[in-house]
Amino acid sequence: MGIERRALSGYVGGSMFTGIVEETGTIERIKPSVKSIELVVRAKICARGLKLGESVSVNGCCLTVVKVSAVKKGGGKLVHFDLLQETWNRTNLQSAKVGSLVNLERALAVGARLGGHFVTGHIDGTGRIIRWERSGQDHVLEIAAPAEVMRYVIFKGSIAVDGISLTVAQVSKKSFRIWIIPHTFEVTALRERAVGDAVNLEADLLGKYVHQFVSVRE
Q1: Phi and psi of 187, rounded to 5°?
Q2: Helix (H) or strand (E) holding 25
Q3: Would you state the CATH architecture of domain 125-217?
Q4: Alpha-carbon distance 70 to 67, whole Å?
Q5: Residue-level pLDDT at 7
Q6: Which residue intervals define the domain Lumazine-binding in the entry (predicted)?
């Protein structure tokens, strides 16, 4: 018997994710309105059993499902989200277009394995890809990040890039480097990225708590 897909909400703030992308969805519609921006994503795995009000990580952003509708062709379902202007302005979703791929992950289920690290879906800032090239079977990804993110980035630490749980391989003053294995490249939206593209960044939650604790004590 499978584990019921229920959000783990045992911390103040809402659902939790792991940074293990379940699938890439395709943006079907972006429609701005006076109060919000409607974002519609075609999904297959993440749409199964999805209910209104549940949370889905879209490129690392925790978004609330407002509607799930059927599609006539191509399989899957359409998952509808309403984004606040603040979310739109502070994430790379503002650069997305119809047809773009986005990383999708449903909220962590109670009792499920934690394959990546704790991810809240609250973006700390956007980074810019400054190096993205193949090296043997792998890829090297280097991201320039703002100071408010870099303060939490450590060698061999975890960071979520567009919702993907990744391990930091090298840190400099204003950027960090990550090695991307073939599997991650193939199953995430990273395969569409290029130098100059913006990526959503969320620093490790535990690292932020430790930083805050030490700062208060000082």
Answers
A1: -105, 5
A2: strand 23-32
A3: Beta Barrel (2.40)
A4: 10
A5: 44
A6: 16-117, 118-214
